[in-house]
Amino acid sequence: MKKQVLEDKVRINKYLAMCGVASRRAADQLVLDGKVTVNGRIADEPGLKVDPRNDEVIVDGRRMAKIEDKKVYILFNKPKNVITTSHDERDRQQVLDFIDVRERVFPVGRLDRKTTGLLLLTNDGTLAHRLMHPSSQVRKEYLAGLDTRFPPAMLQKLTCGMRLKDTGEKVSPCRAKILDDGMTVLISIHEGKNHQVRRMFSTLGFEVKRLDRVAYAGLLPGDLRRGEWRYLSRKEVEQLYRLSSDAGKE
Prior knowledge:
- This protein is α+β, with helices and mostly antiparallel strands.
- Helices cover 19% and strands 23% of the residues.
- It has three domains: 10-63, Structural Genomics Hypothetical 15.5 Kd Protein In mrcA-pckA Intergenic Region, Chain A (Roll), CATH 3.10.290.10; 73-135 and 218-243, 2-Layer Sandwich (Alpha-Beta Plaits); 139-216, Alpha-L RNA-binding motif (Alpha-Beta Plaits, 2-Layer Sandwich), CATH 3.30.70.
- The chain contains six helices and 14 strands.
- It starts with 9 loop residues before the first strand and ends in a 7-residue tail after the last helix.
């Protein structure tokens, strides 16, 4: 894996892509829409350059982590009722309250407040953007505890690629297995639509009472308890780069 050399200043669209916010093209539109501020002033020029180490960049109220030369990769086992966003007006407990590192890291994607399980955090914006890009095909596995038994006859409807009843949005085919009690389903998806697993089961008439992400891109919790975190090994980081090598190339 090549070591990235951070430039003193980079274009705002490249910086936002490094932070995992959007592709460069979409980042340009965010700037044109007046949704980006740099050091307290609205950025109105897509060609603007920023210092990733020192400038304060805010997108739609969300402060971007300043990019450091040293890349950090963290696997966290998120407890219930902890939010993934880096700021919260209601002063609820946040993921970053658990992570005690010098570097400013940010979550790769999100888990909703009620969902528990594995979450990756990093300050490597390039990897984050690639992992979240639709073409990455990164697998995420969840244990979904339901309000009633899930019949085997409905398994094909769950996995064949359905339309969500609330929006009519189409989701890709997935993998799923009904566990022994019938009240729990192990489901593996590669998309990251908002509340996707809950909405898929709701479309079929089931309520998800408990949702736990038990695997992310091949990473497993091991002996990580709720609220605990660890650094990824070099081998694990290289694995993530291989999985995402074709993503985010726009």
